[in-house]
Amino acid sequence: MNFILSLFPLLVILYLMVGLRWGAARAGGAGYLSALVIAAFWFAAGLPALAYAHAKALILSLDVLVIIWAAFLLYRVADEAGAIRVIGQFLPHLTPDMGMQAIIIGWVFASFLQGVGGFGVPVAVIAPILGGLGFTPLAAVVIPSIGHGWAVTFGSLGSSFQALISATGLPDVVLAPASALFLGVAGLFTGLMVSHAAGGWSAVRRLLAPSLLVGLAMAAAQYGAAIGGLWNIAAFCGGIAGLVIAIPLARRSQRQESAVALDGKALALALSGYAILIAVTLGAQLIPPVREFLDQVVFQAQFPQVTTGLGHITPAGVSRKIPVFRHAGMLLAYSSLLAYLAYRRAGIYQPGATRRILSGTVQRVLSSSVSIVSMVSMAVLMEHAGMTDILAHGLAEGMRAAFPLTAPWIGALGAFMTGSNTNSNVMFGALQLRTADLLGYPAALILAAQTAGAALASVMAPTKVVVGASTAGMAGREGEVMRSLLVYTALLVLLVSLLTMAGVWLAS
Amino acid sequence: MGALLEWLSKRKNQAYALAFALIILPPLGLFFFAESRPLSLAMLALIVLGNLLAVLIR
To answer: Considering the entire predicted model, what is its pTM?
Structure first.
């Protein structure tokens, strides 16, 4: 009974989002309310436990929300300046080969967009471009959907990875290597799948060499940035590395006349906002005086021990140390401001741009902010009431040796339910960590499996599929998109299962 | 109830902003007043209200 009641809030979210197609904010609220009632009345959580759980949830939520808000602000600053449109217009002129177009636009550019924006932006931007190039509506949605999945964890300027850090309390140096490795290997296979979606097995064979070359460059760049402490721009670095390799490859194979007519100044201006992001991030991380200056204000909260009526103890402890002015979200905010000033100075904003940037950002992030706070609160409540512990024990007893194989599928389920790698990490991060500890598996590998599975499966969440389908003229045919994505996604999550099993075997 | 639901569907952004304020601001108070039973209860009630509001927004 305890296990079923502990599982109940997660089942509520699953049913409401998948069964009734509720949005994440509504379902998250319902999940939270059910968790609160069960924690208070069945697990006798008590007022102090509930109160401190909410205070902790606030810190975890803000830790993630600041990145999401600032990341979308930067995207809006660049988009309002026409930067995304200019880059999107430039890429199709590189080659008439549709397979190569799928690789460059549907995989590399999608990964780049995921690195800097996320929130469904890659599919929303790319599906119409591919449709205009002659791809079928189904392929126009499926290609960018598969193409950006591998970049989700370190994309959106690291918000999902930040959620994993916050939910588990483990530092980035522990979590980044395996996560980046699993996602990098998945990224290599993603290239082959994009080729397959564009032109079948013949395209896979024909484009094997360029896709492996581009995939290796992107995976290596993401891995290097992630383990080097630059995890908030790791997917962005991967996307840039992919563009640097793929564009000359495409131009060498089949140069087009229209590529010569490219407006280099407009492209440079479009990319300047992202160049500022790189400069700010590198400066804050790698220049000691800048780093020390920004580290002067640090936030850390202390919490007392709380015990539930059933005897579950949450020991006293301190929250993660947050350098307020060097937080990834703050770096994004500085970059957004500088990029805005640069675009404004260049005179490319239309009248009313500032208002549109701010209102567009607020409108877009409001509902996702509500869903994140609700789900974080639910997850922390469950931890404090001992519900996560019960679920972890149940999973540990039920899975045992098979747990490494199932860990990515748990992450995938969370992302499918909530439409978000971030939400999945918030919901299941602590559960996966606890189960790994109970069974004696390396936490870094299991949590890498969690976030990789979640990232890859987030692309076929109903919320994302609906957005993608609507932008490619497939509204009402979302089932077709999901069926097509299911095969590719399942293969990629299975790959992560096998990698996790191999990692556990090597570690033992 | 019907009027509330209609307002929520028409003024979605304002409703989300209100729900967000209700679920993010009271926990700030819980940092300082977690030991006070009446204040904790009042703030938890506001958080529940915020989540209920989020559930009602269509």
So the answer is: 0.74
